[in-house]
Amino acid sequence: MPSDQQSEHSDQVVDELDARLLLLLTDEPRLGVLECSRRLGVARGTVQARLDRLVERGVLTGFPPALDLGAMGFGLTAFAVVEIAQGRRAEVCDGLAAIPEVCEVHATTGQGDLFVRVVARSNSDLQRVVDHIVDVPHVRRLSTSIALSTPVPPRVRPLLERVKGRPPK
Amino acid sequence: MPSDQQSEHSDQVVDELDARLLLLLTDEPRLGVLECSRRLGVARGTVQARLDRLVERGVLTGFPPALDLGAMGFGLTAFAVVEIAQGRRAEVCDGLAAIPEVCEVHATTGQGDLFVRVVARSNSDLQRVVDHIVDVPHVRRLSTSIALSTPVPPRVRPLLERVKGRPPK
DNA sequence: ATTTCTCAGGACAATTTGTATAGTGATCTA
DNA sequence: TAGATCACTATACAAATTGTCCTGAGAAAT
Description:
Chains A, B: It holds the Pfam family AsnC_trans_reg. Chains A, B: It comes from Lentzea albida. Chains A, B: Residues 14-75 form the HTH asnC-type domain. Chains A, B: One of its GO terms (cellular component) is cytosol. The structure is a homodimer of 169-residue chains. Chain A is of the alpha+beta class and 169 residues long. The first copy, chain A, folds into two domains: 16-64, Winged helix-like DNA-binding domain superfamily/Winged helix DNA-binding domain (Arc Repressor Mutant, subunit A), CATH 1.10.10.10; 70-147, Lrp/AsnC effector binding domain/regulation of amino acid metabolism (RAM) domain (Alpha-Beta Plaits, 2-Layer Sandwich). Chain A contains six helices and six strands. Chain A has helices at 16-27, 33-40, 44-56, 89-97, 123-135, 157-165, and strands at residues 60-62, 66-67, 76-84, 102-108, 113-120, 139-152. Chain A has a four-stranded antiparallel sheet, with helices on one face. In chain A, helix 1 runs antiparallel to helix 6 (157-165) and helix 2 (33-40) packs across helix 3. Chain A is elongated and about 55 Å long. At the A-B interface, helix 1, strand 1, strand 2, helix 4 and strand 4 of A face helix 1, strand 1, strand 2, helix 4 and strand 4 of B. Strand 6 (139-152) of chain A pairs antiparallel with strand 4 (102-108) of chain B, so a sheet runs across the interface.
């Protein structure tokens, strides 16, 4: 069959059942395989197989504990755009990675810049962290902005819901 | 016979044992309470109590499934700084939240008003998503930069390790 | 027509969880 | 200083879950 779009498999990484399963686990992550099978109305072996496959494909990478940094005392989140010396990205990233308060670093288009998410206990603590970043060799310029609120917290749900709603075409 | 030495409880939200437990769960999230107690060398009841308390305090919010968006077909991540009309943040955020590809929104200090993380399947798909964002009422200006790489993926580990290393004092 | 997959359904032993209870040392309080 | 508390260890037991392995049916691919 000549076809750029298969019947049900091949190009669909996550099908409807997968999406429903992931959605279920998103809402109640502690559910066991057995309970999932009950909720989804399928056999336990099926759920088990689905999970295994998702892990195999690298879609599902695990169930890490979600920690609320705010509750841990790090009430401040800030984003920093870092300009660095040309060709020094690796070193700078290493330097940034050594700072515990640096929770995430991305290299972005623009001007070979880095985008950094940091947390801190207070404004003065943020000052300290920012100073640390500036002290990293080859960091040229740093522009920081503080997160005042987070209207949309990190989420994946809508993407899954779309898969669930629109089965493979 | 227990070798206790602890004495502080007041301002320490997460003590060393908590940190070790969370670190353990970070590395192997699927471990059960029993296994954790074995690894940590404490009684099962203790682990259970610690987990309960961490949840109670809001530090541990759950074990959501970690999904690799890349493996799901969303290989592109981009950050957008959005400038909006004064006093329209709520509406704009609602509009953004309605777009599945919008995975995170923060209101920030500084020039841009909102900071948005989006994912897309390809460059042209990103175009589509960006167009969607621009179409949200009251969005004035949008500046997007694509994430080329992620030298430091989202992490909390270092923060926990510091607690573990430096017991309350 | 035949092979290959996926999924439902069931079975079983071993392990884990949910709950309790009791004892001990240390800290807090009046 | 004498309780009262608190955190943790150590156990105990029933109920539920997990890890596996099998069988059979239906759909898709060859």
